[in-house]
Amino acid sequence: MTESNNQKQSSGKLWGGRFAEQTAASVEAFTESISYDWRLYRHDIMGSKAHARMLAKQGLIDDKERDAIIAGLTEIEQEISEGRFTFRAELEDIHMNIEKALTDKIGAAGEKLHTARSRNDQVALDIRLYLRDECAALNHLLTEVQKGFTRLARTNLGAVMPGYTHLQRAQPVLLSHHLLAYVEMFGRDRERIADGLKRINIMPLGSAALAGTGLPIDREFVAEELGFPAVTANSMDTTADRDFAMELLFCLTTIQLHLSRMAEEFVLWSSKEFDFIKIGDKYCTGSSIMPQKKNPDIPELIRGKAGRVTGSLVSLLMTVKGLPLTYNRDLQEDKEPLFDALDTVKASLSITAELLANSDFDTERMKAATYGGFMTATDIADYLVKKNMPFRQAHGVVGHIVALCQERDIELIELRLDELQQFSDLIEEDIFNVLSVEGSVNSRVSIGGTAEIRVAEALERAEQQLGIV
Ligand code: ARG
Predict the structure, then answer these.
(1) Which reaction is catalysed here (predicted)?
(2) Is residue 2 reached through a cis peptide bond, with omega within 30 degrees of 0 on the bond before it?
């Protein structure tokens, strides 16, 4: 070894061999990822242990070396989780920080761990393992939010409110129907994640740098050790692929967008203008200047964070755009948006579950809001259709009825039978059944409709699926 070679070794770089000069400090600072990828440490170690067991089974290392590697990695994991490990930026990333610590600890056997492996397939493995756990956490949190909505739907079953289109009062609905709409949305989010997980849950290790390896490895063994149902099919695709992360970011964005719609309704509904909902004091904040204020900052922040999560998705999409095969260092930029989106969505889901448990609806106010706005107008049209009037014609008749009410500043229900009959001789006494808000709601018995019998069925289904007894 020449003297300069010795110097390089002392800088600790695991790839230092072909370099005559030490890396510039600015380059180390610019290229490091350890400041954020350290959080992959458990998964990196899990992957390395499985790799070591495979190397021993294949005779690429002996059993003593395998055991030393596994024991060393266990110690390192302990040190990191207890905060006793010093991460070094000059070692770039989590993979090299751990490998260097292992070699310092156990000597020559540590240097054999990277046999038949590259950081390119190693990082792909780590992210897949990490995301697999995150998918389980997301599924749990989504379920908690679904349960929150379902409980509110049960408590308030029977309460009516205006249903809106264009944020204009449209037709009366049950509050529980509105709440169960969110259970559906978050149910689809869970399905999407479960589907994305199929593509995350494929074992990439053994693709090596990009072309596979000539060493006699056993990829299926590693997959089995780590609980993957399959191994990836093409080593070049594997080291270049981040589709699975893009997909999960899309799922995360959709969740946050769903949350933002709920948040917007909470903001509106807690305003004096609506006054439909009271958010518990513990979940509101005050104003530093206006003593009377009680602000819905939690839903506002949930709504605001939708921009940030969408930004993370776009960030990774743009990172991958135009990248030639296979691995390029650009791909290191996958982690921060992924981690930030996961943290943001998990925190938002978790606080949403709390918010739901600490909010009360003013069902009297909601009911009062169903008067005014002629919300049962469609019901009169449907009434006439049932008596054989073509719908377009019925629409016109009801339009005239509404105009009369507007002129006299009264509600549809305040019209007398003889007044109504002037518009059509098909109108009889039973018209008043459909003019009431409850009558209107309960007439909508179509599958997925807002009639109480349908909503009660939907509620039971949700409770059953979510294991609420
Ligand atoms: N820190 C790198 C990343 O996150 C690990 C892979 C590095 N591979 C390489 N050939 N430099 O992408």
Answers:
(1) 2-(N(omega)-L-arginino)succinate = fumarate + L-arginine
(2) no
Residue pLDDT tens, the chain, 469 long: 333 444 444 457 888 888 888 889 999 999 999 999 999 999 999 999 999 999 999 999 999 999 999 999 999 999 999 999 999 999 999 999 999 999 999 999 999 999 999 999 999 999 999 999 999 999 999 999 999 999 999 999 999 999 999 999 999 999 999 999 999 999 999 999 999 999 999 999 999 999 999 999 999 999 999 999 999 999 999 999 999 999 999 999 999 999 999 999 999 999 999 999 999 888 888 777 777 778 899 999 999 999 999 999 999 999 999 999 999 999 999 999 999 999 999 999 999 999 999 999 999 999 999 987 888 898 899 999 999 999 999 999 999 999 999 999 998 989 999 999 999 999 999 998 888 899 999 999 999 999 999 999 999 999 999 999 7
State whether the beta carbon of 44 lies less than 6 angstroms from ligand 1. no
Find the CATH number of the domain harbouring 453: 1.10.40.30
Side-chain half-sphere of 256: how many Cα atoms within 13 Å? Answer: 29
Q: Is the CB of residue 91 below 6 angstroms from any atom belonging to ligand 1? A: no
Annotated catalytic residue within 166, 177, 270, 312: 166
The count of domains in the chain is: 3
Does 216 lie in the same domain as 176? Answer: yes
Model's pTM, two decimal places?
0.93
Active-site residue, 95 included: no
Quote the ligand 1 centre to 120 CA distance (angstroms): 6
Contact 308, 102 (CB under 8 A): no
Q: Quick check: is 166 catalytic?
A: yes
Q: Are residues 279 and 167 in the same domain?
A: yes
Instruction: Say if ligand 1 is within 6 A of residue 120 CB.
Output: yes
Ligand 1 touching residue 326 (CB < 6 A): no
Q: Which of 115, 134, 169 is the last residue of a domain?
A: 115
Atom of ligand 1 nearest to the CA of 331: 12
The CATH number of whichever domain residue 32 belongs to comes to: 1.10.275.10
Same domain, 459 and 408: yes
- Partner residues linked to 174 by β-bridges: 160
